[in-house]
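Below is the data:
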Amino acid sequence: MTERGWSLVELLVVISVLGIILAFFVPPIVSRVTTHARVVSTQQEMNMLREAIAGNSDVIAGGQLVSTGFRNDVGRLPRSLVELATRNPFDTLYARVMYVGKETLPAWDPYIKKGWNGPYVREDGDMGYMDDVWGVPYRFIVENNETLGLESAGPDGLFYGQPGSRTDDDIRVRF
């Protein structure tokens, strides 16, 4: 009568082969999942920024538009995302951020319903809303002197058209 079963050497060989196969396939799969999660996170943050800028016409209470956004309150688009967090961009935290047209915004006037009525974004102390998850600052999409939306450089960290950018993996949100 012969005995059936696996020897210790055979088991070690099988486990070693499986380990080598997994070493080749697991890192790319984990990388893809991580990149996809970062893209989704960036898209969600950009949608939040779009709502902070342009408002949300679906949010109505008592027949009144509740989520008006920066553009409807102030009468223009923000010149920098800093304006979504403060009406005085010369304050200590924001003083280091320079941009064209930097000015203190008018205070909210409840009678004419105009002026800065924020904050429109949550400030974490690090101005995290200004950068995507890869640490690249968001920028406005401008065509023919008209601001149309926001864009992120995406996973490669380069905006399409910049030197070194081979694919258009930028993430865009229109207003």
In short: The longest helix spans residues 8-54.
